[in-house]
Write a structure and sequence with these properties.
Strand order of the largest sheet: 4-11-10-9
Distance between the termini: 28 Å
Shape: globular
Number of strands: 11
Number of helices: 4
Order of helices and strands: EEEEEEEHHEEEHEH
Structural class: alpha+beta
Largest sheet: 4 strands, mixed
Number of domains: 1
Length: 218
């Protein structure tokens, strides 16, 4: 749901009533809002190295894919990972990534070799020997020079609902899912496609938010 550029703090907020309970280190109470300090989230212990990445929309889900080439078979991937975002979380992710994306894109314009070589075959149509799928709702993106990292976390909607219903922020338990190592050029291409998909998704998300009733805490 959010991202931060290298060295820049990033926070995500949820409107919840303060409950007076001890909070996880990554939650800060500001008035009646709890703010997630992404810099204090537990780091993912699972890692993946990707040499290709792309984004697809399927219904109300937007997936960020990563792949690793099979050196023995140029027409397929050794492995493929799919991180599935609800469209609402994806729109939030994109809106918090625009400034980061613009700065990264400006850097690659000045140093075009960072972009890398275009793929000879569309990675989305290539078979993979192994595949893994996971859900996520928060992503933290960073880059340093030519290298980039993406950390994925999940905050289930059930936990958000229960924290609001019972006025208990301790239910906002964020689970680290995966850290992906890749290049800044691949990250730029992911954000290029994310920009296009966000434009098609935002009207649906806004329409849904306008129709969603807000429950008052007792």
């Amino acid at each position: 749901m959010s991202r931060r550029a290298k060295g820049t703090p990033s926070e995500q907020s949820h409107t919840l009533m303060r409950s007076g309970v001890r909070l996880p280190d990554y939650l800060k109470a500001q008035g009646n809002v709890y703010v997630i300090d992404l810099g204090k989230l537990p780091l993912p212990t699972e890692t993946y190295v990707a040499n290709v990445g792309w984004v697809e929309r399927e219904g109300t889900t937007v997936s960020i894919f990563f792949g690793n080439r099979d050196r023995n078979h140029a027409d397929r991937r050794k492995t493929r990972v799919e991180m599935r975002f609800p469209q609402e979380a994806f729109v939030n992710l994109w809106s918090n990534s625009i400034d980061f994306y613009q700065k990264l894109k400006a850097l690659i314009v000045r140093v075009p070799t960072m972009k890398g070589q275009p793929q000879a075959t569309d990675p989305a149509i290539m078979d993979a020997e192994k595949e893994h799928i996971a859900s996520a709702s928060i992503a933290v993106m960073t880059h340093s020079g030519t290298q980039a990292e993406l950390d994925f976390f999940d905050l289930p909607s059930t936990e958000i609902f229960l924290s609001q219903k019972y006025n208990d922020a301790r239910r906002l338990e964020i689970t680290p899912v995966l850290r992906v190592y890749t290049t800044s050029g691949i990250l730029e291409s992911i954000l290029d496609r994310s920009s296009e998909i966000a434009k098609t998704v935002e009207p649906d998300v806004n329409a849904l938010l306008n129709l969603t009733p807000v429950e008052e805490n007792p």
